[in-house]
Amino acid sequence: MTHYAHRIREHWERYAPNHMKTLAASSEELETLFSEIGAEVLGEVSSLSEDMARVMLAEMPEAREDYLTQVALLTTARKIAEEIAMTHQLAWMPDPSLDLAEARQEWEDTRPNDENLADLALQAQLSDYPIYSTSEMEELAREWAVPIEFLNQMFEAEIPYRFMMEHQDVMAEAATIRFLREVG
After folding, report:
1. What are the helix (H) ranges across the chain?
2. Vertex 100 angle, CA 99 and 102, to 5°
């Protein structure tokens, strides 16, 4: 197993022990599962770090001339790629031993606050130029499970926080959709 597989397994054993028990019938099956996950992470890290290093070297051509700068740049790209790949693997997962109400409470305790969406709207309003394209707004609406019209209205509202508070029913429904999407 790769060191990524070991880190993921340790994380699951610590934060989702009941889930570990339901994953596989034997230790060999668990070993195989985590080896596959580790290989997947290794591939993602390699791909991401190569892409980032290519962009960094293109933006800093002087780094090609200095060996130590190039090593530092490649190391940085790899560390960022590892952080991204591991974050994907260590994301919240429901514990199958929890009933739906307990799983929802666990999700509520760890999910991003709705105020983060209002913060994005406020940042966009304070910006001197458009921050989000139409496709980015559509992706944001999909991610937060709110209608695109609602999101556009929030971004145009005089006070995005007040708009959000006045539309708690939409935000509550969106939270339910996101919860079901994650546990489903």
Report:
1. 3-15, 17-23, 27-59, 67-89, 100-110, 115-126, 134-144, 148-156, 160-166, 168-183
2. 65
Instruction: State what percent of residues in the chain have pLDDT above 70.
Output: 89
Segment 124-135, tens digit of pLDDT: 888 877 778 888
Place of tokens 């556009």: 152
Residues 141/148, Cβ–Cβ less than 8 Å? yes
Q: How far apart are the first and last CA of the chain?
A: 29
> What residues have CB less than 8 Å from 47, skipping those under 6 apart?
81
Q: Distance between alpha carbon 9 and the CA centroid of its chain, in Å?
A: 19
**Can you tell me the distance from the alpha carbon of 21 to that of 30, in angstroms, rounded to the nearest whole number?**
10
> Residue 150 has which token pair?
């609602």
pTM score above 0.70 = no
Crossing angle for the helix pair 100-110 and 168-183, nearest 10 degrees? 110
pLDDT at 84: 81
Q: Are 178 and 144 in contact (CB under 8 A)?
A: yes
SS3 126: helix
